[in-house]
Write a structure and sequence with these properties.
The longest helix is centred in the last third of the chain and has 49 residues. Helices cover about 65% and strands about 15% of the residues. The protein is of the alpha+beta class. The chain folds into two domains: about 160 residues, 2-Layer Sandwich (Beta-Lactamase); about 60 residues, Arc Repressor Mutant, subunit A. It is rod-shaped. It has nine helices and five strands; from the N terminus they run ααββααβααββααα.
């Protein structure tokens, strides 16, 4: 690796470090991943544009379509179920596409030619054995992108990390919400049990009464308890 490339690597690593604060400070997952992908466009002269595919509910989808100049090429592959993008994701490996490789997908190659794409690199976004999507890097001139593969894979690692971190964060938020709901449910159920116990029920019979009402009326136990508490508070005010 030459001195100029070393400088580029150092600059890229510096940008990656700065991006970590963005990952921690924003809820806009697509924007985070897109900014990660754009690092390759800024760092590598031969890369003219990028695109990012993510898997959502098992289906591939391009993010930031208004900023992705070659989204049509990605959508074409989703619709036809074939192309370097899907191959990279399926085989969990980087796919380099020049004129010779593109010939394996004639319809894809024709559309790429119409859009001015001369070469591309597709790097799967992976976390362990899971594929979360793909980074698509495009060239529009007579270049060989093989020398840019390392940069593409470095940026794909960052995008994968961003996806993984945000997914964990979303899961943590979901878990926190579920825990809060469970605690709130427990509190109102205990309050309703207390009301019934003040009328002569034991703790067991109070809970049994609430549960039978829930089953007989097909209403969640928490909702039965909430109704009981609301009625008691309303009666106390009257």
């Amino acid at each position: 690796m030459g001195e100029g490339e070393n400088d580029t690597v150092a600059g890229l690593v510096g940008e990656l470090s700065e991006l970590s604060s963005l990952v921690l400070g924003t809820d806009a997952l697509d924007r985070v991943v897109w900014e990660a992908a754009m690092l390759a466009v800024h760092a590598v002269d031969d890369v003219a544009a990028c695109g990012v595919t993510v898997l959502r509910e098992g289906a591939p989808q391009s993010i930031m379509p208004d900023e992705a100049p070659f989204g049509r090429l990605e959508n074409f592959q989703y619709e036809h179920g074939a192309g370097p993008l899907l191959q990279a994701m399926r085989e969990r490996r980087t796919v380099l596409v020049g004129p010779e490789e593109a010939a394996f997908w004639p319809a894809y190659a024709e559309l790429a030619g119409e859009l001015g794409v001369t070469a591309s690199i597709v790097v799967p976004l992976r976390v362990g054995d899971d594929v979360l999507g793909a980074l698509n890097l495009y060239a529009t001139g007579p270049v060989d992108l093989r020398s840019s593969q390392a940069f593409g894979e470095l940026v794909a690692d960052l995008a994968s990390t961003a996806l993984s971190c945000m997914a964990r964060q979303a899961e943590q938020v979901k878990l926190t919400d579920e825990l809060r709901t469970a605690l709130e449910s427990r509190a109102v159920i205990e309050q309703a049990k207390g009301l019934l116990m003040s009328r002569g029920h034991t703790p067991e019979s109070a809970f049994g009464h609430l549960r039978r009402t829930s089953q007989n009326r097909n209403i969640k136990l928490r909702d039965v308890a909430t109704i009981a508490v609301d009625l008691a508070e309303r009666a106390a005010r009257e």
